[in-house]
Design brief:
Largest sheet: 8 strands, antiparallel
CATH topology: Jelly Rolls
Distance between the termini: 26 Å
Strand content: 25-35%
Number of domains: 1
Radius of gyration: 18 Å
CATH class: Mainly Beta
Bound molecules: 2-acetamido-2-deoxy-beta-D-glucopyranose, calcium ion
Number of strands: 15
């Protein structure tokens, strides 16, 4: 376990303390091959979480997906925070739309979904601080409707419109205001995120409930927490997700 972790941190050049240059004892080609192997191999993050421990406009996790031309989306994740300010929970940008599919917590009691830069707000779902939440959002191009689920409780279905999602860049921890960039520390996420899955179809309410209850559910076919390819940039830790003591 420790070894794997050690290896992981080596994968992420940005985790190196600033100012310490890696010593190039190893032939460059070998180093390069190691780095690309790190980036390309999916990891099973079951029982783990990403910890975002401080406010920055840089720390983030980039999730690799080859999905293209999506006509529907479901994203589910679990999060834990004490932020009452704005923060991004899931930021997907496309070349034409920085808020291609964005789950965003506003500073009042609302959770917003953006698709293709259009926004709808869902009120009164009860987003408490300092507890784990299961958050799922769905949308499909045919109806243009989006829906938010918090801990199995659903919002109304609201109209967003939008068009098919192509060439997505998916980022946790920061909110994209351009394709892959322009982050704002005041919209960054501080806390923990786990169990991120994304499907290219709309999950049924029963499937969402299975996710919430962590029962047998079909893992995401676009992003799968049990086989995730990602890059960590800045201070984001992969930690064991400890269950609370009963
Ligand atoms: C992302 O996935 C593609 C194809 O699946 C691969 O070629 C690329 O190297 C991956 N990038 C990262 C950063 O993992
Ligand atoms: C996306 O998929 C639809 C339906 O299969 C197809 O008509 C369209 O040409 C595709 N667009 C691109 C850019 O591949
Ligand atoms: Ca944005």
């Amino acid at each position: 376990m420790r070894k794997r972790h050690h290896f992981k941190t080596q994968c992420s050049s940005s985790l190196r303390p600033q100012g310490t240059k890696p010593s190039f004892k190893m032939p460059f080609l070998l180093l390069f091959m190691m780095l690309s192997a790190c980036a390309a191999s999916p990891q099973d993050l079951s029982g783990k979480m990403f910890t975002f421990p401080q406010e920055t406009n840089t720390a983030r996790v980039m999730l690799n997906t080859s999905a293209d031309n999506l006509s529907a989306v479901t994203v589910c994740l679990r999060s834990f925070t004490d932020l009452s300010r704005d923060h991004s929970l899931f930021s997907l940008a496309t070349p034409s739309s920085d808020n291609g599919f964005l789950i965003f917590k506003g500073n009042s009691d609302k959770i917003s979904l953006y698709v293709d830069n259009k926004q709808v707000d869902y009120l009164g779902l009860g987003y408490e601080l300092n507890v784990w939440h299961s958050i799922c959002s769905t949308w499909d191009v045919e109806s243009g409707l989006g829906q938010m689920w918090l801990n199995g409780k659903s919002s109304p279905r609201k109209f967003l419109g939008g068009s098919r999602i192509s060439q997505p860049i998916v980022i946790l921890g920061q909110e994209q205001d351009s394709y892959g960039g322009r982050f704002d520390a005041k919209q960054s996420f501080i806390g923990m995120i786990s169990d991120v899955h994304m499907w290219d179809y709309v999950l049924s309410p029963c499937e969402i409930q299975s996710y919430v209850d962590n029962l047998n559910f079909t893992p995401g076919n676009v992003l799968n927490w049990r086989a995730l390819t990602f890059d960590v940039i800045g201070r984001v830790l992969i930690e064991n997700r400890l269950l609370t003591c009963h």
